[in-house]
Specification:
The structure holds 2 protein chains of 2 kinds. Chain A folds into 2 domains: 239 residues, Rossmann fold (3-Layer(aba) Sandwich), CATH 3.40.50.300; 238 residues, P-loop containing nucleotide triphosphate hydrolases (Rossmann fold), CATH 3.40.50. Chain A is built from 17 helices and 22 strands. In chain A, the strands form 5 sheets. Chain A has a 6-stranded mixed β-sheet, with helices on both faces. Chain A has a 6-stranded mixed β-sheet with strand order 16-19-20-13-21-22, with helices on both faces. Chain A has a 4-stranded antiparallel β-sheet with strand order 2-1-4-5, with helices on one face. In chain A, β14 and β15 form a beta hairpin. In chain A, α13 crosses α14. The longest helix of chain A is centred in the middle third of the chain and has 16 residues. The N and C termini of chain A lie far apart (54 Å). The radius of gyration of chain B is 20 Å and the shape is globular. Chain B has a two-stranded antiparallel sheet with strand order 1-2. Chain B is mainly alpha-helical. Classes of the chains: A alpha/beta, B mainly alpha.
Chain lengths: 498, 317
């Protein structure tokens, strides 16, 4: 039995302050398997990965690596054992080139220690070719799309001679075609004897690619089972316990009152061209499109981050100009960013500070003096309404799981009491349970009279929550569907047009 | 209790506070004079001038900026006030002009840095030379002495008020005010937000440009106030005053637990950091350490203290 086991977790426990992140977790991964790891936000997946990679230390338990106890105290040591990790949040040096990133820490040098860039660039192109992508190895990573950045981290892992590759949400920023390519790469690696552990919220993908699946819930091990014996419904049930799944959208907005009306909006630098649409009161308007279609650019332009070259924006019948986000917020427009890590979270600050950042001037009395009573009320309401799992309002946000961080950011925008709320990939990197909660919150917002624009790369989700869907491609709007009449095929046909 | 200790662990100042207390114990044991009321008041008085600036250096570093021109603003304002007074202007009015000049220098630093999108290190390095040059030009390079009216002297530079040196009282008052601004107001919140993640702050509707510029103005005013108090205490000014003051202020700030990466730091820490620098220097002098050795030792202490404070709060793994 022990012979075919690569890594075996035995009674692993880990605590962060008052939160038990992992509680007595035991399971094994077979050599040459693709092993799925699933669970809700805060289930302990990321913690387990970080313990394996030597980023965190476990409090209790031990890890057996090919039958022997494994002690890793740094990512470098982990790599020496042949363990590489493709992290969910992409740790690349944006100022360096693709090739430089791929070979970071393992430069090929000549006798005199000079890096041989030509060779490394060739190898980079070759590695990308293996996963079916063409790339300019001299491109600055900072200028790449999110999908290409993600592929770069995967190539980084391929480049090291790993026995065990751990991938944390590798598909969250990829298009269906890119996901398929990635899976082909994984199957090839598996055929060569590499063991892979993959973390994903997209259960259909897990069913497709994995040999076995381990489910964690609230830091505990629920089950490890053969994928062929599993069903999506069964896995969801193990992940969330007995919580009802989100019901599909029933109520349709009354298309009477136009809240936001955009006409002829263009922005040359962002390649936005002649965008016109209306957003109705209490409507959820989905924006569909592939990476680079200009959805985020449209959203940030409406939010005042960029200035349009031409076109008009009317809010409740009055033409408005939005010079910066502050003015957008004053007009009642909110924007939840897609880039939680860089543009959303204040990492050193607490839950309440993150939730209250956009309304800080309203949390004061006597002029500018912060009012603890208002702060506590705001925080309590945010934590309650969004069911944020935190040890308290003063908890530093970085100790929360990704999904709970996202809920805190959502709370920031709910606290603004917007008329129009733009949600950019609100459920990216968020698990089934939190997805359901976020959907519920969006529906509640609409019931309270708010109009919502949702950008999501998950078409299934977009169709489930939207009343109406606009399809964008190349910076302009290519089509419009009522969600109940739209299909994947119809939308994708428009989205991939040149 | 456990909760309480847990909270302490994450406060960077605690490590420094512990070292500070040990240091005070050490000097108390090896010298007879360290732990005496006159000496403690003397330390407070010695650190008070740069201490006024440290508080706002802390704020400016939290918002990821830096100001290297404080020592020159200090000199320039001192010369402005002294010259206006010598030319017959009322000292109160001259001081007001001095404070406004400090604000103006700060505004200039801030606007050029923020609106020009330039690195604050470079802009204020330039400012350091420009304001110093200004001080030298208007003074012709010569010091000026002033005979101040008692009413003014008593509330600024007097050696005693209720047996306490007045500059030290200013230092404590300004510390409390700065603490209030940074920790109890929405302005302070915005300083942390700007330093923690400027883009996220802007997307949350915070006018980060205004916050950063205001921080430059505040430190300009603080430098001016420090200069006026010093002028009163010394009854004179020199155009070369305040050289190296920015480094002392930055050192105190960093010893006090403020991160050079921004977003992290407290006024409490800045206060400890200020006293720390003063105590080390004072203690070494009392021990009869060679003047040549003192800077060397202080340099080691600076790096050591910062190491300890980072070490004690390094992210738990």
């Amino acid at each position: 039995m022990a012979d075919n086991i690569l890594i075996s977790y035995q009674s692993i426990s880990k605590r962060f302050g008052g939160v038990q992140a992992l509680d007595d977790v035991s399971f094994s991964i077979r050599k040459g398997d693709i092993h799925g790891l699933i669970g809700e936000n805060g289930a302990g997946k990321s913690t387990l990965i970080k313990i394996t990679g030597g980023i965190y230390r476990r409090d209790q338990g031990q890890i057996l690596w090919e039958g022997r106890p494994l002690e890793v105290n740094s990512p470098l040591e982990a790599e020496r054992h042949g363990i590489s990790i493709v992290h969910q949040e992409i740790p690349l040096c944006g100022n360096l080139t693709v090739a430089q990133n791929v070979f970071l820490g393992r430069l090929i040098t000549n006798r005199f220690g000079q890096p041989k860039w030509d060779e490394m660039e060739e190898r980079t192109v070759e590695l990308f070719r293996q996963i079916g992508q063409s790339i300019d190895p001299r491109a600055r990573v900072g200028s790449l799309s999110v999908a290409l950045k993600q592929l770069t981290t995967i190539v980084q892992a391929l480049n090291s001679t790993s026995k065990f590759i751990i991938m944390d949400e590798p598909t969250s920023a990829l298009t269906p075609g890119e996901v398929e390519t990635l899976f082909e790469v994984l199957r090839r690696l598996k055929a060569e004897g590499t063991t892979i552990m993959i973390v994903s919220h997209i259960l259909s993908e897990m069913m497709q690619i994995t040999d076995r699946v381990t489910v964690l819930r609230n830091g505990r091990h629920v089950d490890t089972l053969e994928t062929k014996d599993a069903t999506i419904e069964g896995l969801v049930h193990m992940m969330v316990g007995d919580v009802p799944l989100p019901t599909p959208k029933e109520s349709q907005s009354v298309r009477s009152e136009v809240v936001l009306s955009v006409r002829g909006l263009s922005q040359r630098r962002l390649r936005l061209r002649d965008i016109s649409f209306d957003l109705y009161k209490q409507e959820i308007l989905g924006l569909a499109g592939i990476q680079g279609a200009g959805r985020t650019e449209l959203a940030t332009t409406l939010f005042g981050v960029h200035q349009p070259d031409s076109g008009t924006i009317e809010l409740e019948g009055k033409q408005i100009t939005v010079k910066n986000p502050r003015q957008a917020i004053e007009h009642g427009i909110g924007y939840l960013t897609e880039d939680r890590r860089n543009l959303g979270v204040f990492w050193e600050m607490s839950v309440w500070q993150n939730a209250g950042a956009a309304i800080i001037d309203d949390l004061t009395s006597f002029g500018n003096v912060l009012d603890n009573r208002r702060i506590e009320e705001m925080a309590a309401k945010s934590i309650r309404d969004l069911q944020i799992k935190t040890s308290g309002l003063h908890q530093t946000i970085r100790f929360l799981s990704g999904g709970n961080q996202q809920k805190v950011l959502l709370a920031r925008w709910l606290n603004v009491r917007p008329k129009v709320l733009i949600l950019d990939e609100p459920t990216r990197g968020v698990d089934v349970g939190a997805k359901a909660e976020i959907r519920r919150v969006i529906q509640e917002l609409v019931n309270q009279g708010i109009s919502v624009i949702v950008i999501s790369s998950d078409l299934e989700e977009l169709l489930a929550i939207s009343d109406r869907v606009l399809v964008m491609a190349n910076g302009s709007i290519r089509g419009e569907f009522l969600a109940r009449e739209a299909t994947f095929d119809k939308i994708m046909a428009l989205a991939v047009q040149k | 209790m456990k909760q309480f200790l847990g909270a302490l662990k994450f406060r960077r100042e605690v490590g420094v506070l512990a070292v500070f207390i040990l240091l005070c114990l050490f000097f108390s044991v090896v010298t007879n004079t360290f732990l005496t009321i006159p000496n403690i008041l003397n330390i407070l008085r010695q650190v008070s001038i740069s201490g006024l600036i440290v508080m706002f250096m802390t704020m400016i570093i939290i918002s990821t900026d830096i100001d290297l021109s404080v020592g020159s603003i200090f000199a320039a304002v001192g010369m402005i006030v002294a010259i206006l007074f010598q030319k017959g202007m009322n000292i109160w009015l001259a001081s007001l002009v001095g404070l406004l000049a400090g604000a103006g220098f700060g505004l200039l630093n801030g606007v050029v840095t923020v609106k020009g999108g330039l690195p604050p290190f470079i802009v204020t390095l330039g400012g350091q030379m420009i304001y110093r040059g200004f001080a030298l030009v208007i003074s012709g390079g010569a010091p000026a002495s002033v005979r101040l009216p008692d009413a003014f002297y008593n509330v600024t530079g007097a050696r005693t008020f209720l047996n306490l040196p007045v500059p030290a009282l200013w230092f404590i008052a300004v510390t409390l005010i700065a603490g209030f601004i940074l920790h109890k107001t929405s302005y302070g919140f915005k300083v942390y937000a700007t330093g923690g993640n400027e883009e996220a702050a802007r997307l949350s509707g915070i006018n980060t440009d205004r916050i950063r510029i205001t921080n430059f103005v505040l430190i300009g005013v603080a430098s001016a106030l420090a200069s006026i108090i010093q002028m009163a205490y010394l009854r004179g000014v020199t155009p070369t005053a305040g050289q190296g003051m920015e480094l002392t202020a930055i050192a105190s700030t960093v010893i006090g637990g403020t991160s050079m990466f921004g977003g992290v730091g407290t006024i409490g820490g800045a206060f400890i950091g200020t006293l720390f620098m003063g105590v080390v220097r004072n203690g070494l002098v009392l021990m009869g350490t060679s003047a040549y050795l003192i800077d060397l030792i202080i340099g080691i202490v600076l790096v050591g203290a910062v190491f300890l404070s980072t070490f004690s709060t390094r992210e738990k793994r």
